[in-house]
TrEMBL record:
Family in the record: Belongs to the acetyltransferase family.
GO terms of molecular function: N-acetyltransferase activity
One Pfam match: Acetyltransf_1
Record-given protein name: GNAT family N-acetyltransferase
Domain N-acetyltransferase: 1-159
Sorted UniProt keywords: Acyltransferase, Transferase
UniProt xrefs under InterPro entries: AcTrfase_GNAT_prd (IPR017255), Acyl_CoA_acyltransferase (IPR016181), Diverse_Substrate_AcTransf (IPR051016), GNAT_dom (IPR000182)
UniProt keyword Acyltransferase, yes or no: yes
Amino acid sequence: MQIRPARPEDVPVILELIQDLAIYEKEPHAVKNTVQDLEKNLFGEHPAIFAHVAEDSGAVQGFALWFLNYSTWEGVHGIYLEDLYVRPEARAKGMGKALLRTLAEIAVERGYARVEWCVLNWNEPSIRFYKGLGAVPQDEWTTFRLTGDALTAFGGAAA
């Protein structure tokens, strides 16, 4: 097994893994992302997202897609893990742990304050996995999202 930064040729399989994750999270039709979108956002002139992949026997079996956030209290960046996914047949080989460890190593090396992510409340296997790594839930916080018609109505109100 090898963890490495994603390369442009990994984009199609990363998109496939994103689609697999959407199926796992019971949102199979939610993915609008394309190979072209991922190529531009990961490898374009000003990339704002990053990805690492887990390879086994020359095949990508998992990925972590992340971006920088910023702590106004700490005064430094952190890593926000948008997605972590390993194919079911490749699980229990340490790939998810290795991907997260890679992000933690990047955070430590760069002096970032934290690595954080969200997990669905029903996803008990992932919650147990994360707690086993020493991660703690931020139970006092509720994630809000402005999207779709509500985003258009609110964001278009000033126009």
